[in-house]
Amino acid sequence: MNLPQIVQYCLSGITVGSIYAIVAVGFNIIYNTTGIINFAQGEFLIVGAMTAISLCRIVPLPVAIVLAVLVTTLLGGLVEIVFIRRVSNASVLRLIVITIGISIIIREAMLHIWDEKVRSMPYFTGTAISSIPILGAYISPQVLWVLGVSSIIVTGLTLFFRFTLTGRAMRACADDRMAARLCGINDRWMVTLSFMLSAGIGALAGCVISPVTQTQYDMGAPLAIKGFTVAIIGGLGNSMASVAAGLFLGLTEAFMMSQFEVAYKEAISIVILLLILMFRPSGIFTRREVSDLRTL
Amino acid sequence: MGKQFTRILSVLVVGFVLGSSGCKKSNEAPPLKVGAIFAVTGGASFLGAPEAKTAEMFVDKINRAGGINGWKMELIVKDSGGKPENAISLAKQLIDEEKVLAIIGPSTSGETMAIKNICQEGKTILLSCAAAEDIVNPVASYVFKTPQKDSDAVRWIYKTMKEKGISKVGVITSNDGFGVAGSAQLAKLAPDNGITIAISEAYDKQETDLTGVITKLKGQDVQAVINWSIVPAQSLVAKNMKQIGLDVPLFQSHGFGNIKYVQAGGEAANGTIFPCGRLLVAEVLPNNHPQKAVLVEYKKDYEGRYKEDTSTFGGHAYDALLILTEAIKKAKSGDRDKIRDAIENLKGVVGTAGVFNFSSADHNGLALDAFEMLTVKDGKFAIYEK
């Protein structure tokens, strides 16, 4: 392999990794508040992207994206109020199964609203054929958008969860719901807020990756599985680690692909997931003591 | 718990008995009951959705005109979601419970291969809308297919490559039935045509980015890329090639025959070369072309009724029903075996995919000339000119 080729594999890994990362971030928000993994996260992405694609025929692209994020945010809140809030004394496992049900309902609804055809948003800068040369290799400008938007989201979220009262209250709910309630936190609204936030961020992610991945009503699940894998590898609840893990998985896949048959790519990410679950269930970027503290 | 379980069970049993007795009644009514298994939803919905719409339109038209020999046709469409395991249970349901005369579909090669033997053993005519050659080779007496042959598509691609002086190619295929069959045909016919396949890779059918695979092809200095798939990822191939600067011609399979793929590929899709039936270029065919009238009529009917562009896939369902109705007319009977024999003797039936000439050895009936090399020009399909 010569230098341009190595760089090209890196850039390809970054392209794929950035998509994994931006999907994974959404998982962390709901996990941080409720301890549940929302398997409808992939559907939030697709709803966002589909809404924006429909809207950008009538309004300018940035407006369409903002509206799509708002619509999906409301949908996230609605989903929580209708399906999650009513379940009293629910175990985490039961709530997770409910989110799987929600994902199926949203997917079927999308099939009826937007039919089965594949769509994609216009590239934010340039077109389908523009690319930026780096050391003899090339990358689509949209990938830079994906990376840029994910870093903004991650920085924003980290600041929000660490330094704002609402963010801290949301984390408190995940650690001990009862104790949080005793401190005067309105835990129900915190959960609703976390669903709204993660739906909104999912919608934004869906819009940004749409030019690269294209958007079809049933694409949510495969995206969510990869995002989930990355969230686990990074350590659930840690958005910054998710981005690092996403890029790590993307690059690993790209270089494995250069040496082995492409068909084995999926197997590689599953093996990595299994190894992490067996030996470092709290993720490679989370210190063990921290996770032990959480489970106390 | 035990009591509740018994109660649920008894409700189920009663429901089942009532349900099956209901079925018996409807069995007596129409003589021509045709089943259809299409991937209306799921990853292959590009094929199945237009096929289902076409089939409904076709049967409506026949019935409005008074049926075939005065017999009305009843169509039962089942959605397989593109999954072979669903196709199996739906085929069994159509054969054993609905006792259909024939099954149209399934949409994909993987599904068709899964039910080939079920239909053969159930002595039910299967008119597949999927492309892989294995469907009719070896011949199963009840199994037919309407799309053009894989191997003919490969021959056209290789012929065009030779004209362009291309000899070293990279092949990428989706890891589903269509891709696997295509990859095998490409490998089989390459030596005879003087083509060297430098690298052949399969990608996941739900892939969302292919720059990695294409980087690998670029490393082999190929003179052209052949992509063989029916999934949306085929639009990514063109985009990713342009993005990483692999500036060689892109050849696609006949699975590219849907304008939506071109739209999804945007500017990058321009210049793609692929073999395809003539439906996509119906308007520009000379007036004396034997298929012109059929193609223009189908296109007008479909686009008028559904307000969306036609694709060759819907045409495959049209052809399947056309062949079935022609055979019923010829057999003058609703008897499965007589109709099956009639299909084998059909000659010169003009469909959307080409002119069908069946025989007991050829259950596809199409020749090499059913294909035309097409290309994409300014986001539209056009006939490829050297």
Describe the 3D structure:
The complex is a heterodimer of chains A (296) and B (386). Helices cover 74% and strands 2% of the residues of chain A. By secondary structure, chain A is mainly α. Chain A has a two-stranded antiparallel sheet with strand order 1-2. In chain A, 52% of the residues are buried. The mean pLDDT of chain A is 88. With 386 residues, chain B is an alpha/beta fold. Chain B is globular. The A-B interface holds A 1, 5, 8-9, 11-13, 15-16, 19, 111, 115-120, 127-131, 133, 137-140, 209, 212-214, 216, 218-219, 222-223, 253-254, 257-258, 261-263, 265-266 and B 40-43, 45-46, 49, 175, 201-204, 206, 208-209, 211-213, 215-216, 218-219, 232, 235-236, 238-239, 242-245, 260-261, 264-268.
- Summed over residues and divided by their number, the pLDDT of chain B gives a mean of 88
Strand content of chain B: 15-25%
Strand order of the largest sheet of chain A: 1-2
Count of the separate structural domains of chain A: 1
Assign an overall shape of chain B: globular
**Unreliable segments of 5+ consecutive residues of chain A:** none
Q: How large is the share of residues in beta strands of chain A?
A: under 5%
CATH class of the largest domain in chain B: Alpha Beta
Q: For the CA atoms, what is the radius of gyration of chain A? A: 19 Å
What are the salient characteristics of this protein?
heterodimer; A: 296 residues; mainly alpha; two-stranded antiparallel ribbon; 12 helices; 74% helix; B: 386 residues; alpha/beta; Rossmann fold; 5-stranded parallel sheet; 4-stranded parallel sheet; 14 strands; 45% helix; globular
